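Please fill in the sequence for the structure shown.

STRUCTURE ENCODING:
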């Protein structure tokens, strides 16, 4: 099993890239456990490059007639690296109509030499010429042999035990992008994992703040958007908030960036804040999944209470099945242990062997020392007007 480390910024963990073999790729949940045994979860984001010759679909020539029922126009307001994104629903269109629009002179990608130039153009022009995003389209483009909604992970418990399907969570969504279409800063519903495959088209660039720094990210966002924070503690779940990398750097929030090419997967890990934008016309497919490690995140996820359409999954079935010894405490509201974001999922024990307990012991020791260091040191607090 092979992995490599991508772009590393100061204070961050480094996004890892994995190259599974055909055999390894056939057992998705096991491969995720392997990735965590290598520490991939610490950065909050990882890339998987499928085995050479692997194709999820023989051809995309037959999707022109697919309907995008509710495209959204993304209107962005703000300045100086801090923006709010509003989505205006447009009338339905086919993929063929969307592609023509995305490649038109009005919406097509600008000329650029490298990613840094394109990134500058994105943030410089984010408030101009609102693009249209074919987001949250129910369906899959996978051939039956490898379907993104059949990953056989812990999340399948929801459907198997209760018969509940949640669109875009345990069923797949398609996303048709054009230049400058954006996904704002957020963690996944219930702080789940996600997997995103770029079927075809122009790249998609990602920013990620590791779970370790998630609370710092929230404090920063609450400070800059106090009105939104006052109305909803979990307002970042509204997916309306854009904060530029220059602001993150200024306030010392470590982050990563990674560009996803067509034919590559990106995996986000529990409680990893992520955002990004599309370079031009493309199509991606995503869904959520879980490991046993996620259960603690699901139990402690802070949810939006101001919108009726926000996803909420009862954790009772997961605690009862995977943590039976804690079930009574959970029902009594007394099961609130702190989360160690660096700890790999229990399924990773297969790859770490006896070393799994060594990893846990060393991490718990480091966590204790870090907690004492934070307590003992006097830190300068940033005040927001």
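FILLED IN BY: designer on duty
SEQUENCE:
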């Amino acid at each position: 099993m092979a992995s490599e480390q991508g772009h590393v910024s100061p204070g961050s963990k480094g996004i890892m890239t994995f190259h599974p073999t055909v055999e390894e790729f056939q057992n998705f949940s096991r491969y995720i456990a392997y990735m965590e045994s290598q520490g991939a979860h610490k950065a909050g984001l990882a890339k998987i490059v499928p085995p050479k010759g692997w194709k999820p679909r023989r051809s995309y020539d037959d999707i022109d007639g697919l309907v995008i029922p509710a495209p959204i126009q993304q209107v962005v307001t703000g300045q100086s690296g801090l923006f709010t994104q509003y989505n205006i629903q447009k009338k339905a269109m086919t993929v063929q109509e969307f592609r023509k629009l995305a490649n038109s002179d009005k919406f097509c990608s600008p000329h650029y030499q490298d990613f840094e130039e394109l990134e500058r153009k994105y943030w410089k022009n984010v408030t101009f010429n609102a693009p249209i995003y074919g987001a949250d389209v129910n369906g899959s483009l996978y051939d039956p042999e490898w379907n993104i909604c059949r990953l056989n992970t812990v999340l399948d418990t929801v459907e198997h035990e209760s018969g509940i399907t949640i669109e875009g969570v345990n069923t797949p969504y398609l996303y048709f992008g054009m230049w400058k279409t954006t996904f704002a800063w957020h963690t996944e519903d219930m702080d789940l994992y996600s997997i995103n495959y770029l079927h075809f088209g122009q790249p998609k660039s990602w920013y990620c703040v590791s779970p370790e720094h998630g609370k710092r990210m929230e404090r920063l966002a609450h400070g800059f958007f106090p009105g939104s924070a006052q109305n909803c503690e979990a307002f970042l779940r509204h997916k309306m908030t854009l904060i530029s990398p220059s602001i993150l750097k200024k306030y010392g929030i470590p982050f990563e960036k990674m560009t996803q090419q067509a034919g590559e997967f990106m995996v986000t890990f529990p409680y990893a804040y992520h955002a990004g934008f599309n370079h031009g016309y493309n199509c991606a497919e995503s869904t959520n999944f879980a490991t046993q490690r996620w259960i603690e995140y699901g139990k402690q996820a802070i949810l939006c209470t101001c919108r009726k359409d926000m996803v909420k999954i009862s954790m009772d079935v997961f605690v009862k099945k995977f943590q039976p010894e804690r079930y009574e405490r959970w029902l009594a509201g007394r099961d609130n242990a702190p989360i160690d974001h660096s700890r790999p999922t229990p399924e990773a024990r297969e790859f770490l062997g006896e070393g799994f307990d060594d990893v846990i012991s060393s991490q718990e020791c480091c966590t204790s020392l870090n907690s004492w260091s934070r307590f003992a040191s006097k830190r300068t607090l940033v005040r927001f007007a």
